[in-house]
TrEMBL record:
Phylogenetic classification of the source organism: Eukaryota, Viridiplantae, Streptophyta, Embryophyta, Tracheophyta
Entries under CDD domains matching the protein: pepsin_A_like_plant
InterPro entries cross-referenced by the UniProt entry: Pepsin-like_plant, PEPTIDASE_A1, Peptidase_aspartic_dom_sf, Plant_Aspart_Prot_A1, TAXi_C, TAXi_N
UniProt keywords, alphabetically: Aspartyl protease, Glycoprotein, Hydrolase, Protease
Family the UniProt entry places it in: Belongs to the peptidase A1 family.
Protein name per UniProt: Peptidase A1 domain-containing protein
Peptidase A1 domain segment(s): 18-367
Keyword Iron: no
Transmembrane portions of the chain: none
Taxonomic source organism: Rehmannia glutinosa
Keyword Phosphoprotein among record annotations: no
Length: 375
């Protein structure tokens, strides 16, 4: 085992989700744990995995976690009765099950293993998750990284120093990822980094930032900061959430963004507005394939003097190649969705940035980085 001050988990991708690999349990086998992939979710706190004996199970490879065979599995009891949990997500997915403690294994900077005992997690027994619909789904649960005391980063305690960081590769790049979810001393700060305050609201899990405006290239749109402001409820303001594939922009701001992009693209020849099949609202077909060329940057202006979060074209748009019998057709879409309540900076928009959540100092630190280059 290694000094666990450099704990890290390998980040991989399944469909639109970023996932991390963990080891869990103690078995009479080599290695002595079972390996699973969990979705990396900064918008929730609970760490959980689908367990065998589930009465409502989603499809996954490998089989659900065989809790009964692990010598380090301990249900959490209250007056000798197991404690249960219920967790529901914003997209309608949910998990119910038993609270327990178990030994987790992650990688480390030196290539060894970091062993963490008595991690509190949920053993999912009644699980309704969209992953099950994907062919060969390998996601077995969720690693919650939110504000809560039960989140993975909080449970690591002094080893993580309240900090975690990641660099999400662009999904469509086709390259396999060799990037890591890092904790504590494993995180490198860059002299060009920017920062904005992180907020917690009503003792809930998600991380909030203050979004104040949006620009296309260098032109700021006429959107009042009030549109994004926190109101006295959970369903306002702006979250930053690795578990949401696309950003969600509150409708008045989305309408302005869409209108200005339509004006921007009206200057180009060979573009035709279409309905794409990604569930995205603003899509154009091109007469010849150009990838991300001639697509503008979009900037989210966050609170702070130097806190512009600049989305290069590959983070702002989705480009889809279309093979027709005659010739290659390509279309692109704004990779954002309108939303009636709370805005969310999603995973697609966070790609090719080093993102550091510093929960002790309540800061989000970020800077551009090529996430395909083993960061």
């Amino acid at each position: 085992m290694t000094s666990s001050s450099t704990i890290r988990a390998h980040i991989d991708v399944q469909d639109f989700y970023y996932i991390v690999k963990i080891g869990i349990g103690t078995f009479k086998s080599k290695p002595p744990y079972k390996e699973y992939y969990l979705e990396m979710d900064t918008g929730s706190g609970l760490v959980w995995i689908q367990c065998d004996g589930c009465t409502k199970c989603f499809k996954q490879t490998p089989k659900p976690f065989p809790k009964g065979n692990s010598s380090s599995f301990h249900p959490i009891l209250d007056e000798n009765k197991p404690l249960f949990y219920v967790c529901e997500y914003q997209d309608g997915d949910s998990t119910h099950g038993m609270q327990a403690r178990e030994t987790f294994y992650l990688g480390s900077k030196t290539g060894g293993l970091a062993k963490m005992e008595n991690i509190q997690f949920g053993c999912g027994l009644y699980n309704v998750m969209k992953y099950g619909a994907y062919k060969n789904n390998k996601i077995a649960g969720i690693m919650g990284l939110g504000w809560d005391d039960i989140s993975f980063v909080k449970q690591l305690g002094p080893k993580a120093k309240g900090k975690f960081s990641y660099c999400l590769p662009v999904l469509s790049s086709g390259k396999t990822s060799s990037t890591y979810l890092r904790f504590g001393d494993d995180i490198v700060h860059n002299k060009n980094s920017k920062s904005t305050p992180l907020y917690r609201r009503n003792k809930k899990s998600p991380y909030y930032v203050e979004l104040q405006g949006i620009s296309i290239n260098k032109t700021r749109l006429n959107i009042s900061p009030e549109v994004f402001a926190f109101k006295n409820d959970d369903r306002s303001g702006c979250m930053i959430d690795s578990g949401s594939p696309y950003s969600r922009i509150i409708t008045p701001a989305f309408d302005k963004l869409k209108l200005e992009l339509e004006k921007y693209f009206s200057r180009f020849k060979g573009l035709k507005k279409i309905n794409g099949n990604l569930g995205l609202e603003l899509c154009y077909q091109r007469s010849k394939p150009e990838g991300f060329n001639n697509l503008p940057d979009i900037t989210f202006h966050l609170q702070g003097s130097q806190a512009d979060f600049v989305l290069k074209a590959e983070a702002a748009f989705e480009v889809v190649g279309r093979f027709l019998p005659i010739r290659l057709r390509e279309y692109f879409c704004l990779a954002m969705i309108r939303e009636n309540e709370v805005s969310i900076i999603g995973a697609h928009q966070q790609t090719n940035h080093r993102i550091i959540h510093d929960t002790k100092n309540k800061q989000l630190v970020f800077y551009p980085e090529d996430c395909s280059k083993n960061p």
